[in-house]
Design goal:
The chain is α+β, with helices and mostly antiparallel strands. It has two domains: about 110 residues, D-3-phosphoglycerate dehydrogenase, domain 3 (60s Ribosomal Protein L30, Chain: A, 2-Layer Sandwich), CATH 3.30.1330; about 260 residues, 2-methylcitrate dehydratase PrpD. It has 15 helices and seven strands. The chain has a five-stranded mixed sheet with strand order 3-2-4-5-6. Strands 1-7 form a two-stranded antiparallel ribbon. α6 packs across α8 and α13 packs antiparallel against α14. The protein binds iron/sulfur cluster. Iron/sulfur cluster binds next to loops.
Length: about 400
């Protein structure tokens, strides 16, 4: 499995697969084809269906500037390999298209050519399933934080410190911003209202909602967030970490350890299923984030490896089947609210698991596989096309 650096990335929202991935692809194509007179970029499937709401065209044009860019929208063509396909072409002086390059934005800002996915950039971890990881940890008598330190490069703690700070900033900035979220829904931000509610009541749930909403609203507005594991689910982990810090005074070290635990859970989901809403629906984005956060909270609360696995299993299991149905294609409704609910549910999953001895019937790996199969069976309109689910009530 990949390094956690490939999972947690700092960048601008609102969509890791629709903005960060295409931006990386455009950047690479531009550097490999600097002499083009202009560029043509064909977007397929989900990238074309919801690319406008997710600013895909904007980010590609901006990255390939100052050269002209023609964007071709082909929502009707869904590539077998992954629904987020795109083809770059360099147009020469005579108007001829050269060097076609087809690449896929496979979730969390990662890009892959056909056949590349599932092959880690560099195999940082030797284990592929959570069962293997836990077995190893038990044998070595180490926890998941120590497991990460054992396999990652020496600078991982510095990297995670930067991630922690970026998460906190996304919450703090979100809590001090009142502007309307860009887009035709003209949504008012809500994080500040929930913060005021928390201040009045000292109700922990209100604090979780406020912090998760703050980061999710920052993402929806295109500001800097951390993929955890994606942009659309960027409010869940910061939400619960910041609320735990406010309310229970957990330390920075506990948050770093929580990031390691959550990272391994996310890594297993990314490796064995998917974190792409276009591929498996929102169960792979907000569901995955809830699972990661649940495991992290269980670790912070002093959970055993079995209790952590159980918390992660609960977090994902109760999001099985959740569709990706963003209204008008914006990462706003239901996404923002969904982050707040998932952050609270992560806490509940951890508390639930901590009230047991950690023994459970369905394993985390089985839920991950079930999530993948459910995603495969999910009709296309429920996978980030803005055609089905809640999105159907609003026409383009
Ligand atoms: S519904 Fe979920 S998967 Fe779809 S765009 Fe929103 S957060 Fe992402």
């Amino acid at each position: 499995m990949d390094s956690l650096k490939e999972l947690y990335k700092i960048g601008n929202g609102p969509s890791s697969s629709h903005t960060m991935g295409p931006q990386r692809a455009a950047d690479r194509y531009k550097s490999e084809n600097p002499d083009a007179k202009s560029y043509r970029v064909t977007l397929y499937g989900s990238l074309a269906a919801t690319g406008k709401g997710h600013l895909t065209d904007y980010i590609i044009e901006k990255t390939l500037a100052p050269k002209d860019v023609e964007i071709v929208w082909r929502a009707d063509i869904i590539k077998d390999y992954h629904p987020n396909g795109m083809m770059f072409e360099a147009i020469d002086e005579n108007g001829e298209a050269k060097n076609p390059w087809t690449v896929y934005s496979v979730g969390g800002g990662t890009i892959a050519e056909e056949g590349q996915r599932g092959n880690a950039v560099k195999e940082t971890y030797p284990h592929k399933t959570f069962a293997e990881i836990i077995e190893y940890c038990k044998k070595e008598n180490i926890n998941l934080y120590q497991y990460v330190i054992r396999y990652e490069e020496i600078d991982i703690l510095d990297y995670l410190e930067t991630i922690k700070d970026a998460m906190e900033n996304s919450v703090l900035e979100g809590l001090s911003t009142e502007e309307i979220i860009p887009g035709k829904l003209q949504l008012h931000r809500r994080a500040i209202n929930f913060l005021n509610n928390y201040k009045d009541t000292n109700d922990f749930s209100m604090d979780i909602y406020a912090c998760a909403l703050a980061a999710a609203e920052q993402n929806a507005s295109g500001y800097v967030i951390v993929t955890a594991p994606t942009c659309g689910s960027a409010g869940v982990l910061p939400g619960i970490f910041c609320a735990l810090k406010d309310h229970f005074k957990i330390t920075d070290q506990q948050i770093i350890e929580g990031l390691c635990v959550a990272g391994m859970i996310g890594n297993v989901i990314k490796t064995n299923a998917s974190i792409s809403g276009a591929e498996v629906g929102c169960q792979g984005e907000v569901g995955a984030a809830c699972s990661m956060a649940a495991g992290a909270v269980a670790h912070i609360l002093g959970g055993t490896l079995d209790q952590i696995e159980y918390a992660a299993e609960i977090g994902l299991e109760h999001h099985l089947g959740m569709t990706c149905d963003p209204v008008y294609g914006y990462v706003q409704i239901p996404c923002i609210e969904r982050n707040a609910m998932a952050a609270k549910r992560a806490y509940d999953a951890a508390k639930y698991s901590m009230a047991t001895d950690g023994q459970h019937t369905i394993t985390f790996d089985q839920v991950v596989e079930t999530m993948r199969e459910t995603g495969v069976d999910m009709m296309e309109k429920y996978r980030e096309t803005a055609k089905g689910g809640l999105a159907k009530w609003f026409s383009h």
